[in-house]
Amino acid sequence: MMIPNQSFFFIFFLSVIFNTLASPTHQRDALLEFKNEFPFNASDPRAPPEAPLSSWNTSSDHCSWKGVTCNAHSSEVISLVLEYTYLNGSLKANTSLLKLHHLHHLTLYNCDLIGEIPSSLGNLSHLRHLNISDNNFLTGEIPSSIGNLSYLSFLDLSHNYLVGKIPSSLGNLSRLTVLDLSDNHGLIGEVPPSIGNLNQLTIMICYINKLNGNIPSSFANLNKLSYLILSENQFSGGDLPLILSNLTSLSYLDISENHFKSKLPPNMSGLHNLEVFRVSSNSFVGTFPTSLFRIPSLREVYLNGNQFEGPLEFGNISSSSSELELLELASNDFHGPIPEDISLFRKLDIISLSNNSFTGSIPGSMFKLVSLSELDLSYNKLEGQVPSFLWRIYTLRLSHNSFSNLEELPQAVVNGSDYDLTSNSVQGPVQFDLSSNALEGLIPRWICKHSSLIFLDLSNNHLSGSIPSCLMNCTSSLGVIILRNNNLSGFLPDIFTNATKLRSLDVSRNQLSGKLPKSLINCTSMENLNLKGNKFKDTFPSWLSSLGSLSVLFLGSNALYGPISSHLGFPSLRVIDLSNNSFNGTLPQDYFVNWREMASVGEKDGFTSSDGIDTFMEHMGGGIYEDSMDMMYKGVDTEFPLILLMFKAIDFSGNKFTGRIPKSIGMLKELRHVNFSRNAFTGSIPSSLANIKNLEALDLSHNKLSGYIPRDLANLSFVSYLDFSHNLLQGPVPRSTQFQRQHCSSFEDNLGLFGLEDICGSVHVPHPTSGDSHQSKEFSSEESEEALSWKAAAIAFGPGVFCGLVIGYIFFTSHKQTHMVHGKARLNHLGGSITVS
Ligand SMILES: *[C@@H]1O[C@H](CO)[C@@H](O)[C@H](O)[C@H]1NC(C)=O
Ligand SMILES: *[C@@H]1O[C@H](CO)[C@@H](O)[C@H](O)[C@H]1NC(C)=O
Ligand SMILES: *[C@@H]1O[C@H](CO)[C@@H](O)[C@H](O)[C@H]1NC(C)=O
Ligand SMILES: *[C@@H]1O[C@H](CO)[C@@H](O)[C@H](O)[C@H]1NC(C)=O
Ligand SMILES: *[C@@H]1O[C@H](CO)[C@@H](O)[C@H](O)[C@H]1NC(C)=O
Ligand SMILES: *[C@@H]1O[C@H](CO)[C@@H](O)[C@H](O)[C@H]1NC(C)=O
Ligand SMILES: *[C@@H]1O[C@H](CO)[C@@H](O)[C@H](O)[C@H]1NC(C)=O
Ligand SMILES: *[C@@H]1O[C@H](CO)[C@@H](O)[C@H](O)[C@H]1NC(C)=O
Ligand SMILES: *[C@@H]1O[C@H](CO)[C@@H](O)[C@H](O)[C@H]1NC(C)=O
Ligand SMILES: *[C@@H]1O[C@H](CO)[C@@H](O)[C@H](O)[C@H]1NC(C)=O
Ligand SMILES: *[C@@H]1O[C@H](CO)[C@@H](O)[C@H](O)[C@H]1NC(C)=O
Ligand SMILES: *[C@@H]1O[C@H](CO)[C@@H](O)[C@H](O)[C@H]1NC(C)=O
Question: What is the domain-level CATH number for residue 525?
Fold first, then answer.
């Protein structure tokens, strides 16, 4: 009986030591030491100055300190939760935290920890909950010793900058229920199969990393898994049929934005708890996963951005019991009609079928989808009538189809209040994009019923008649009106008195006539005004110069006349096109003095030619907006998506201006394009043009300019297009690489230019035989390719990209996810070298 006694004493002795270690002062001192491991007097630069952990001082019991929880009986620290505490230091390998032996819960969330996670944390053997999420500078690998924390049930290392592989030791954490490694950007390699041992796991989140390879088959063991989010990695495969058939608890599956190439499992109806199924932006192939739609709990399906094909078949769905709210199928190869039984999903709120090859007309049964608030059918091959019930929908995109007409609402409905659009269950701004169809007839008057219409695009159709003046009812909400390229006639109605939110008005390429409505002066937010290609007959609207935001003004190809005097200048204007009108008179030498935006480097100039599209994209919202304007670009009439119309340009060509070209043009240092051609300018070319260092195109042809071409123009090192032809110029042509590259015809028909041997060959500069050499001018293949590419860009940009900079609004943002860029074209650079792959 001696031995038990001995061991009794031994145990007694140990427990004395242990109690000493765990004594309140020991715990308190450990916390104070921990505090001292950080330069804690540094105040948080994001918050009012206050030393972090200032409550951690000896004037009070450590169990009352901020973030500290003790065992009520022993005063041992069992939980330490610090959130938004600016520590600005690293966790040391010998951190005093290790003395808090009884710690169950450790959260250091958003504490600006830097450096690595010390592997010694694996010694906190009682930890159940470890959350070191959202620390700005936490880097290094996940220590494999974390796998020693055998009681751990909750591990959150998300939103840091961790790198390296996921240690397979994590597979030892047999009690783990939550594993969040998301948004570290740097976790690489394959997921260790041992993770499949974690059969208590209910949540696994790893999005935004660089994990690759297959999802391990061992995941089939995770039969308690409810959330599996692996999006934005580089996973390429895995035995999905095997895995998914066993993950019967799954309610949220997101494997979007990876490199999966396979088919989906043929039967997924066993996932009877599934609510969200998200496989967008992979390369999945095969037919529409009909089995999915037999899952009654299903709420959201995202198949967009894959290579699914064939018709939509929903199979046997028990009507009215479906929970489906969102169906996102954009950017696949689906074809065939939109099935009538889509309307069995009565709760559908958002449908996007855009950028497929759907044919036929919009099924009448969709009338029953009373909750529908967003419908995107753009970029398909749909045709027929646009049914009037669609006007309940808040975001309607039908562009780029072949719809032929808009069904009128019955007159009783239009007049009566029973069709009260404002009583739609969905609240919010209304956006209609019906552009690029074959719509005929009048603009329906009931559009005016939408008092919260913010976006209206009916461009590129065959609409006729006049612009309804009842639009006045919506102008106080409208941000964008695009009616470009229709057959609209009559006056532009004077409806803009309250249009203070209107940023873009494009009625170009119609048959509008008469004077410009004076109420435009009240459009104080106006940025882009395009009236080009109509029959407007009015004097120059110099009063528009009071619109402080006006940055793009297109008045070209109308019947505008008279002088263009403007005392104030256009301080915000980036691009002005007055071409092909009958403006006349002389321009004072100081004409451009107050055009400040063209004279200075604006914030938007950073996104011009030299920048990659990626830089540009970062500055745009996820919304969709498309509009374009056309102007002469290096001698070619080119359609620019507004988002690319970033350069600064002046086009006064094709008018009746006389006198000298104002010297003050040289103050507009940021201009890229200057076109004064086809006027009656006299005198010499202002040498101040040489101050416009970034000038890319200069067209002075078809004037009566005399004297020498200023020698300083040879210093314009970015010029790629020059035209001096059909003037009275003489003397030597300046010598520079840029001048030598021009076509001979750029100098033809002058009084006596010489030094053209390199440009025109030994033959003399040809004299014109007819007056239309301007039209017949050949462009280098590079230039025409460029023009083509701009168009391709316009197509490529379709939806998915948005003119945040020019228009500034975010349209169509209520979509729960961002659309793919349509089409297969890709933009490499903004200026010039746009390629189509
Ligand atoms: C923090 O500031 C207090 C006085 O405000 C000072 O006594 C203490 O030494 C400082 N601690 C550190 C680590 O700089
Ligand atoms: C954070 O720590 C770094 C050094 O690690 C130091 O340069 C910086 O000044 C600290 N910030 C504050 C606000 O104390
Ligand atoms: C010590 O902590 C208490 C709260 O526990 C606080 O009111 C007091 O200001 C702190 N003292 C110092 C010197 O920071
Ligand atoms: C931790 O180690 C550092 C050296 O790495 C040493 O300066 C410091 O005193 C140690 N702290 C404790 C509490 O042991
Ligand atoms: C962690 O535990 C290991 C093994 O039990 C031991 O060797 C190591 O010294 C401990 N580290 C710290 C910092 O306590
Ligand atoms: C980690 O802690 C933060 C702050 O308490 C919390 O917002 C976050 O949800 C926690 N992580 C997880 C996965 O719950
Ligand atoms: C803790 O983990 C490390 C690395 O995984 C291992 O070498 C060590 O033996 C483990 N210690 C204990 C006490 O389990
Ligand atoms: C599927 O789960 C069951 C337990 O629910 C398990 O016995 C079986 O091994 C799992 N299948 C695979 C392929 O892992
Ligand atoms: C425009 O608004 C007025 C008054 O708010 C209303 O009487 C009229 O019916 C509206 N016009 C149309 C076409 O909706
Ligand atoms: C313009 O707005 C004012 C004030 O909001 C309102 O009283 C007036 O009726 C509106 N005018 C038109 C034409 O809508
Ligand atoms: C501009 O709006 C004001 C009221 O805000 C109005 O009095 C004025 O008539 C409007 N101007 C034009 C030209 O419509
Ligand atoms: C400008 O054109 C108008 C007619 O459009 C004409 O009356 C006027 O005399 C012209 N002015 C000059 C300076 O040519």
Answer: 3.80.10.10
